[in-house]
Amino acid sequence: WDELSFPIRNSTLRGFQICPVNNHRKKSDTQNWLRSPFMKLIGRSRIYIELNFSMRECHDLEDTICRETFKIYYAIANNGSRNPNLDENTFTTIDTVAAEDHFHPRKKGGSYINTEVVTVVMPASVDISSTGIYIALMDEGACMALISLRVYSIVCPSVTDSLAVFPETLTGQLDTSLVKVSGECVEHSRLAVPHRSLHPPVFHCTSDGKWNVQTGTCYCEAGYEPDGLKQRCQPCPRNSFKSSSGNENCTKCPGTSFTTGLASVTCMCSTGFNISSIDADCGVCPTLPSAPLKLNVIKSTIHPGVVRLKWKKPADLGHCRNISYYSTSSKATTDHSNSTFGKCNHVIYHPSQCTSDTPHINVHNLHGRTNYTFTVFAINSITERHYSNSISAIKTGLFTIHQKAMGSLHLVQANYTSVDIEWNPPSYTNGDQVTYRVGAHVSPHTSYMLVNITRTRLTSLNSGTSYKVAVHAINSAGNNASSVLVFSTLSDASQTTRGHMDDPLASTYIYLIAAVSVLIFSVKINQKPISLSISMQQINSWYVLDQRTYVDPFSIGPIEPHKFGCETDPNRVSIGKVIGCGEFGEVFRGTLTLKDFHGKQSVIDVAIKQLHALCQPHEQIDFLHEAKALEQFQHPNIVKLEAVVTASRPFMIVTELMANGCLGMFLRHQRAAKRFFKPVVLIRMLYGVSEGMEYLSKLGYVHRDLAARNVLINKDLVCKVADFGLTRQINDHNTCTNTKGGKISLRWAAPEAVAYQTYSEASDVWSFGVFAWEVVTYGEKPYWSLTNQQVLQAINDYRLPAPEDCPSVLHQLMLECWHRDRNARPQFSRVVGRLDTMLNQRGMLDTLASPSSTG
C-alpha cells in the first residue's frame, strides 16, 4: 500500500492506494494488509466502520489477476504495545466489500467514490471496558484507493425529560437492543410523592441513537411547578402557591388572599377573610360559591306533574373542591335572600332535595293550574358552617294548567280472556301531546300501561272475572279525572283444565298489549280500592320505556367498576376512513387531540376500533376486557393504548397508528409484488413479537389468539402484538386457564386448547410456532384448504412442513413449539434467547430446512 494525497472537492486528503495489476501477476499469491492503530473500546459493545474508496474495473485485464473486492477484519487486543500478526489466524473477518461504482483509466468525469458501512458486534467473552481493537484491510489483487476509514459508535445524547436528566448512553449490542437508563431528578424535584406509586424515571436507548419508551417521572417540590417542556421546576410566581409535591401548576391565590414572595406553599388571607380551611375539601381563605348558572325547567311529556331542573355549576366554587345543591319550590314568587335551610317541603325530589351532587334533579307530584317558582342554591363547607342564609341561588317560574276532562269509556267487545275498549279524547289538551294511562284492577292488584291512541285490547284475562278499568288522559300539565268502566269476562267451564302459573299471585297480573306505540309498566297496590295515581317516588327513570327490554351488560359484568385512566372526550377523536373490519365493529384511521398540563393541544394519528351499535352484551364485555388489558401494558412490542371512550356510545379503543397495518396482509402484499426480505429481517420480526409475548407471560397473561392477523407492523418494520379481546390473566396458583364455549382459532390452537379449552403460556407458544410459519411463508394460510376435521387430525398426528427457504434452526424451533406435551415446549424467555442467537450468529441461517421435513 502506498500513501498519497487525493484531491477531493477542492481539498486534498491523505489516503492509501494499491494496484497489483501493474505487476501483471498471473496468480493470486499475495495478501496486502493495511492496519489501523490500536483503539480502546471504552465500553463499546458495537462499533461501525465507514470506508470511502474507489476501485478499478477488471474486465479488460484478461492476462492479469485482478479482483473487484477486498476484505475487512478486526482483532481484539489488551493494549497497543505489541503489533499483531497480519494474518487470518489473528484477525477475524468482518465482511467482504465490493464496489458498486468502478473507474477505468480511459473513462473521464463522474464520481467513482464508494461508501460502505459495516458493523462489528463484540463477542460476549470480550471485556469491553479494558480491551481495544485493530481494524485491518486485506487486498488480494484489487486496484483500489482507500480515501478514508472512520470508526465510530452511536450514542443516545444526554437529555432532560419528565423532570429527570438522562446521561449520554452507548447503544446496545443488537439492532433490537433497548438499553434501560434511569434518570436523576432535576433540582427542586424528587421521586417520592405521598399516596402515589413509585415509578423511577426510565428511558430506553435504541440502536439508532434515539430515546424511546419513557416511563416514570419526577415531581416538583411544594412551591415549584414544571416548565412547559418538563425540564426544570420553577418557583411559583408571586400571588400563587402550591402546597404539595406534584406536577400540577401553581394555583393563583384567591382574591381574598396573597403571598409575599416566590415559591410559596400557601397564601395569606386578606383582612376580614381569616377563616382557616374548614376541612380537606376547601383551600385557603374559602368563601361562598357564586350562584348556579342557566337554570332550565324541562316538562315531562310522559309522566304527569313531573319536571326536570337542569343547571350549570357556579363559575366560582368558593375555593372548595366539592359543591352540592339545595332545591326549593313555592307556589308564590319568593325572594331567595329570605329562603333558609330547612326540611324538604311536600314536593317529591329525586334523588334528593337537600344533598344533590349533580347539576340536575327530578321534581315529582306537582299540581296542575299552579304557578311554581323553583330555586336552586349552591352550597359548600363555608355555606353550611358559617351562614344561615345563602345568596348563591338562581330561580325560575313554571306555569302549568290541566286539560279538560276526556270523553266516556265504553266496551267494544269481550270474550273469555280479552276485551276491546275505546274512549273519546279530551276536548282541550293545552297543545301538548296526550298520553293515556290505562289501569285494570282485580283485587288486590292493579296493573297499568301507557298508550297514545284511544283504543286498546286487554288480553290474558281470567274468564268469569270482574274487572274495573279506568283511563286517564295526561300530558305535561298533569292528569284529568278518569273515566271508569266495570265489566266481567265470559265464564269458561274448561278453565280449570288450562295450564296456569305456579305462583298464585302471578295469575292475577294483567298483561296489557297495545296495538300501536305501547309503553308498559306494572305496579302492585296491596289491599286498596282502585286508585290510579301512581306514587311519584316510584318513578325514577327519566326516559320513555321501549317495548323491548335492554340489558346493560356493564350493570352486571365484572368490568363495571373499572375506571380508565385514559378515558377521553369523544369530541377529541376524529374518525377518518375505514382501514379494517372485524366481527364486532370496524377499525378507522383518525386523529386524537391531546392536551398537556398547560392546555396546549397536539394532534396525533391513531387507529380507532369502534364497537358497532348492534353488538351483544358479551361482545361489549370482551371489548372492554381488551381495553382494560391494553391499559396495563407498556412494552415496545405491544401496541400502545392512547385513549378509550366508554362513558358514551359507541365504545372506542384508540391506539397508536401502525402504518403498515396487520402483518399477515402486509406479508401477502410483499409476496404478490415479489418483494422478499432477507431471513434476518423476518427473524427480527419474530424476535420482536416473542419479546412482547414474553412480557405478557411474565405479567401472567395468556393471549389465546396469537396469529399474523393480530400482529401490527409499523413503517420501520417493528412488529407489535395487538387484539387482546380474548386475553385472560392467570392467577398466582394456576398455570393455565379454562374457558367455556366461545370461538377458537383452530389452525393456531394447541391440542389441549382444542380438546379441553385449556390455555396457558404453552398454548401461546404453540400459536407462536404457527405464527412463525405464517411469517416465513409470507402469510400463507396454515394447513391451506384442509377442512376443520382434517386440521384436527393434522394437529394430533402431523406437523406443518418446513416453508421454502426456511433456515433449519428456525424450523427446528417451530417443531419444539409444536411439541404435543405442553410441558416440553420452550417458554417465551427461551424462544427469545434462541432468536437472539440466530440474529447474532447469522451464519447458522445459511443452512436451509428440507421443504418435505415435518420433524
Automatic annotation (TrEMBL):
UniProt main location, coarse: membrane
Pfam families: Ephrin_CRD, Ephrin_lbd, Ephrin_rec_like, fn3, PK_Tyr_Ser-Thr
Keyword Kinase: yes
Membrane topology: Single-pass type I membrane protein
Signal peptide residue numbers: none
Alphabetical list of PROSITE patterns matching this protein: EPH_LBD, FN3, PROTEIN_KINASE_ATP, PROTEIN_KINASE_DOM, PROTEIN_KINASE_TYR, RECEPTOR_TYR_KIN_V_2
Ranges for domain Eph LBD: 1-161
GO molecular function, one term: transmembrane-ephrin receptor activity
Classification via InterPro entries: Ephrin_rcpt_lig-bd_dom, Ephrin_rcpt_TKs, FN3_dom, FN3_sf, Galactose-bd-like_sf, Growth_fac_rcpt_cys_sf, Ig-like_fold, Kinase-like_dom_sf
Keywords: ATP-binding, Cell membrane, Glycoprotein, Kinase, Membrane, Nucleotide-binding, Phosphoprotein, Receptor, Signal, Transferase, Transmembrane, Transmembrane helix, Tyrosine-protein kinase
GO cellular component: dendrite; plasma membrane
Domain Protein kinase span(s) in chain numbering: 573-839
Biological processes per GO annotation: axon guidance
Domain Fibronectin type-III per the UniProt entry, residue ranges: 291-399, 405-492
EC number: 2.7.10.1
Subcellular location: Cell membrane
Residues that hold ATP according to the record: 609
Keyword Transmembrane: yes
Classification via PANTHER family: EPH RECEPTOR A5, RECEPTOR PROTEIN-TYROSINE KINASE
Protein name listed in UniProt: receptor protein-tyrosine kinase
Species annotation: Ciona savignyi
